[in-house]
Design goal:
Elements: E1 2-4, H1 14-30, E2 33-35, H2 37-40, H3 56-70
Parallel strand pairs: 1-2
Length: 71
């Protein structure tokens, strides 16, 4: 299995950020690879066009990040 955090531009929702923290915690507890897209994808509109959805540039970076982690 592989877990991934969610890249986003959400700034004011602590519960949403807790979601990514839980993903990391579970990955560590279960010794499962976690691809940290929340850290890898810049929080700029070039990469995420609204609060959650990737642009083409963001999707390409996510795909590259995931494929590098899976090698």
């Amino acid at each position: 299995p592989v877990l991934m955090t969610q890249a986003n531009r959400v700034e004011d929702d602590p519960l949403y950020h807790r979601f990514n923290e839980v993903i990391k915690e579970v990955g560590q507890q279960e010794n499962v690879l976690v691809v940290d897209l929340a850290t890898a994808i810049p929080k700029q509109t070039d990469y995420i066009y609204d609060s959650y959805h990737y642009t083409a540039k963001g999707a390409a970076l996510a795909a590259m990040t995931i494929s590098e982690q899976l090698k």
